[in-house]
């Protein structure tokens, strides 16, 4: 699961430090207490706990608390939730595809005019309101063919749909 780039991207976004990925590996491999993880990874206990709480806050880890009858100290047994990883990846892909489709609709439904100096990009309506003149520099705006932008958006949608289908089939493991 951790070799999948989509999973890595999601986890890096949460734990933010590549060297802390070994904490997730420990959880996946069944090492459950923060003390055991700190010992195995040689990462300070407070950092291990920070990462575990970040995973918990993101819904990717859960814990059970138990009290040691002798010491009266609490022990936390942690568990990694791989199914929630897939759910989050699916949600992320769905949201991104939706935003890209909206952007595609806007690009396909408009003609664009740009400032030759690169100041601004306007829809036909915006450009006509401004007299087809850039408000920043006063140069006449030029028609922009947006076929390349539309093509790139379609390619990105296709890539996300492929990764979404990859996630849905459970092959992201």
TrEMBL record:
PROSITE patterns (UniProt xref): HTH_TFE_IIE
Family as reported in the entry's similarity comment: Belongs to the TFE family.
GO biological process: regulation of DNA-templated transcription; transcription initiation at RNA polymerase II promoter
SUPFAM superfamilies, sorted: Winged helix' DNA-binding domain (SSF46785)
HAMAP family: TFE_arch
Origin organism lineage: Archaea, Methanobacteriati, Methanobacteriota, Methanomada group, Methanobacteria
UniProt xrefs under NCBIfam families: PRK06266.1, transcription factor E
InterPro entries, alphabetized: TF_E_archaea, TFE, TFIIE/TFIIEa_HTH, TFIIE_asu, TFIIEa/SarR/Rpc3_HTH_dom, WH-like_DNA-bd_sf, WH_DNA-bd_sf
Role this protein plays: Transcription factor that plays a role in the activation of archaeal genes transcribed by RNA polymerase. Facilitates transcription initiation by enhancing TATA-box recognition by TATA-box-binding protein (Tbp), and transcription factor B (Tfb) and RNA polymerase recruitment. Not absolutely required for transcription in vitro, but particularly important in cases where Tbp or Tfb function is not optimal. It dynamically alters the nucleic acid-binding properties of RNA polymerases by stabilizing the initiation complex and destabilizing elongation complexes.
Origin superkingdom: Archaea
Keywords: DNA-binding, Initiation factor, Protein biosynthesis, Transcription, Transcription regulation
Subunit structure: Monomer. Interaction with RNA polymerase subunits RpoF and RpoE is necessary for Tfe stimulatory transcription activity. Able to interact with Tbp and RNA polymerase in the absence of DNA promoter. Interacts both with the preinitiation and elongation complexes.
Gene3D superfamilies to which the protein is assigned, alphabetical: RNA polymerase ii, chain L (2.20.28.30), Winged helix-like DNA-binding domain superfamily/Winged helix DNA-binding domain (1.10.10.10)
Any Pfam family the entry gives: TFIIE_alpha
Protein's name in the database: Transcription factor E
GO molecular function per UniProt: DNA binding; translation initiation factor activity
Provenance organism: Methanobrevibacter cuticularis
Encoding gene (name): tfe
Ranges for domain HTH TFE/IIEalpha-type: 3-86
Annotated domain remarks: The winged helix domain is involved in binding to DNA in the preinitiation complex.
